[in-house]
């Protein structure tokens, strides 16, 4: 499924409030990281079903990243993009070495965080009553991320998770929170 285009045009990023510019910087970094998660999976895994899963979701994440690439000038992006590429790749490749359950656990944890991240931004935008095109875009991307999470959960439900998988999910969530904080600033 493709991301729907925002209903309203996107304003120049420089015209947006600083808090929103920081959020968009972190969103761009996160979408870049997501692209590299799926590339890491595809580089390492030979499992046909897992490769199809990764290729399908990679396509949508590339669309998201391309939107941010076109919208944010290079000077408005995170200075840590090389770090996010490496971290994303490792976050995909390492679980792929273990197997599908580790990958689906990772994707669930990442998407759970991303969904909350986008929903928080949408809530702030709704409260402001401004920047409707930005809100529409974030809603669309959040909907895509919800589908990615649902797909991962369908393939490896929470009820089947081991203690190690639950600890891994927590670690992914904490590292995602730290990454967003850094991307907002740098």
Automatic annotation (TrEMBL):
Matches recorded under Pfam families: COQ7
Keyword entries, A-Z: Iron, Membrane, Metal-binding, Monooxygenase, Oxidoreductase, Ubiquinone biosynthesis
Keyword Transmembrane helix: no
InterPro entries reported for this sequence: Ferritin-like_SF, Ubq_synth_Coq7
Keyword Oxidoreductase: yes
Highest taxon in the source lineage: Bacteria
Biological or metabolic pathway of the protein: Cofactor biosynthesis; ubiquinone biosynthesis
The protein, known as: Demethoxyubiquinone hydroxylase family protein
Naturally occurring in which organism (per UniProt): Candidatus Marimicrobium litorale
Phylogenetic classification of the source organism: Bacteria, Pseudomonadati, Pseudomonadota, Gammaproteobacteria, Cellvibrionales
């Amino acid at each position: 499924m493709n991301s729907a285009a925002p209903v309203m045009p996107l304003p120049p990023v420089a015209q947006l409030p600083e808090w929103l510019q920081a959020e968009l910087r972190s969103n761009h970094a996160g979408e870049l990281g997501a692209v590299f998660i799926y590339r890491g999976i595809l580089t390492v895994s030979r499992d046909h079903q897992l490769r199809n899963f990764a290729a399908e979701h990679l396509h949508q994440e590339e669309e998201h990243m391309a939107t941010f690439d076109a919208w944010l000038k290079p000077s408005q992006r995170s200075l840590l993009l090389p770090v996010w590429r490496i971290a994303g790749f490792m976050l995909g490749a390492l679980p792929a070495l273990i197997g599908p359950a580790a990958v689906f656990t990772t994707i669930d944890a990442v998407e759970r965080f991303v969904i909350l991240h986008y929903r928080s931004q949408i809530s702030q935008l709704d409260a402001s009553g401004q920047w409707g095109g930005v809100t529409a875009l974030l809603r669309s991307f959040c909907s895509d991320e919800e589908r990615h999470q649902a797909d991962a959960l369908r393939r490896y439900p929470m009820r089947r998770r081991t203690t190690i998988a639950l600890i891994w999910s927590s670690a992914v969530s904490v590292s995602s929170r730290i990454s967003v904080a850094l991307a907002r600033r740098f």
